[in-house]
Design brief:
The protein is mainly β. It is 9% helix and 39% strand. The protein has 3 helices and 12 strands. A 6-stranded antiparallel β-barrel has the order 1-2-11-10-7-12. Strand 3 and strand 4 form a beta hairpin. The longest helix has 10 residues.
Amino acid sequence: MGAILGKKIGMTRLFNEKREAVSCTIIEAGSCFVTQVKRVNKEGYDAYQVGIGERKESKLTKPLQGHYKKAGVTPGYKLVEFDFAEMGQILELGSPVSVESFKEGETVNVLGVSKGKGFAGVMKRHNFSGSQRTHGQSDRQRAPGSVGGSSDPSRVFKGTRMAGRMGSDNVTVRNLEIFKIMPELNLIVIKGSVPGPRNSYVKIVSTKK
């Protein structure tokens, strides 16, 4: 088992041994450091808090400055927690977490936040087919149609699919294969796509499957 925090750089294509083009996502995973070790007798649960990126100390609050100073690491831009089981190794406060804990060909789960699409209609958000285009229907092409009864039940049920905010959801893509690892550049190349826009942060966790 292994886990790390990374920043999505973008997508490209590489060629495998059979000279086949493979769509891949490049993730900059590092340099990461353990900024806090949480234990069940103090915080109520066991977890490692890992930080990535660099941030000016002048832009941090005094409690955060003391938090990083206690760990003995440079201030990170993003903080994420991992379970002890996810990390799969014993780490001390301030220990580095590198891509060398993974190996090529290993399968991982990637967790991220999907792209935000803003306010979207029912056709884009829920794949509605739209209303009919004939028989005097002039402005109903992309309308949702009826959302509830009139006299009974005289209300709209909770969970009815309607227009609203789309995207910005927590998404987990499972069983993606690591295509290549470049430890000298702190890069992991993963087959396929991962959730989120460019420069967004993702969690990479080894899968048990």
